[in-house]
Specification:
The chain is an alpha/beta fold and 251 residues long. The protein has 2 domains: 3-114, no CATH class; 116-246, Rossmann fold (3-Layer(aba) Sandwich), CATH 3.40.50. It has 8 helices and 4 strands, in the order ααααβαβαβαβα. Strands 2-1-3-4 form a 4-stranded parallel β-sheet, sandwiched between helices. Helix 7 links the parallel strand 3 and strand 4. Helix 3 (74-97) packs antiparallel against helix 4, helix 4 (102-120) crosses helix 7 (202-212) and helix 6 (181-191) packs parallel to helix 7. The radius of gyration is 24 Å and the shape is globular. The structure holds iron/sulfur cluster (SF4). Residues 138-139, 142, 144, 146, 153-156, 158-159, 161-162 line the site of iron/sulfur cluster (SF4). Iron/sulfur cluster binds at residues 138-139, 142, 144, 146, 153-156, 158-159, 161-162. Keywords: Membrane, Transmembrane, Transmembrane helix. It holds the Pfam family DUF116. InterPro entries: DUF116 (IPR002829). The chain crosses the membrane at residues 12-32, 38-67, 79-99.
Length: 251
């Protein structure tokens, strides 16, 4: 038996024991409960519903307020940030259930997250910033291995990598091209940037932003004229502008 199978089987066993215990507890409660027990359970359920509804209401108001005003006090920013993080998975599930467009919701999440980073109005030295790029920006028939080092790019102009490599060299901000979420997480934990400018699709950006948590991420959604993950493109000026808004040019 390999380790992963053993871990999986043990986890399944633990969950099963947990469910059986809960079932037994409910059985006991049912046999010995009086009308007062039912009233108490109902009261607890009402209380939980009130708390969740209040949290949902306050968070929604805070998110809308910050989004429209583009600024707010620390406490409102904190409520909106926490609210969005907690409500986002729920909203995504509901969007899926009602057959809505999840990318639109993810785009809002990315825009709102960018707004929160903007409100921090913090400047960083070039070596504290990281530009993170998806491999699909590279022209599919290019033979140069830019995932090792973006400077292997020969700036031939067939894709946007060359222009981004120029910005990276000019501003002295390291840029990395990664093949997926795991590679992105590895490079982030290895280099420990203070802020990331990340290019990706709505799905990867929203999950990446949630993954890195404590590190601010400025997300820029790529264009996908040839479908997902193939010869994609990005507004290079948007990267430059975002970079100039956070970089401390004196360093
Ligand atoms: S710009 Fe760079 S990465 Fe893009 S095709 Fe040319 S050499 Fe390859």
């Amino acid at each position: 038996m390999d380790n992963s199978y053993r871990n999986f089987a043990s986890l399944m066993g633990t969950v099963l024991v947990l469910f059986v215990t809960i079932l037994a507890a409910f059985g006991l409660l049912y046999s010995y409960s009086t009308i007062n027990t039912y009233n108490f359970i109902l009261l607890v359920l009402i209380l939980i519903t009130v708390i969740v509804t209040l949290f949902y209401f306050v968070s929604s108001i805070a998110i809308m307020y910050v989004y429209r005003r583009k600024k707010a006090s620390r406490i409102v920013l904190c409520i909106s940030r926490t609210g969005l993080r907690m409500l986002f998975p729920l909203v995504i599930v509901l969007t899926g259930l009602f057959g809505g467009n999840k990318d639109t919701i993810k785009k809002f999440y990315i825009d709102f997250n960018n707004l929160l980073v903007d409100t921090m109005d913090k400047k960083y030295s070039p070596d504290e910033i990281m530009i993170l790029l998806p491999h699909c920006l590279q022209y599919s028939e290019c033979e140069y291995k830019i995932t090792n080092d973006i400077n292997n790019c020969k700036r031939c102009g067939r894709c946007c990598i060359g222009f981004i490599a120029d910005i990276s060299a000019e501003k002295k901000v390291p840029a990395y091209v990664v093949t997926g979420g795991t590679a992105a997480r590895n490079i982030v934990s290895k280099k420990e940037p203070k802020i990331i400018i990340s290019v990706a699709c709505e799905r990867d950006l929203s999950s990446g932003i949630a993954d890195v948590g404590r590190i601010p991420v400025i997300g820029i959604v790529n264009d996908r004229p040839n479908g997902p993950c193939y010869n994609t493109n990005v507004d290079v000026d948007a990267i430059r502008n975002k970079l100039e808004s956070i970089i401390n040019e004196k360093e």
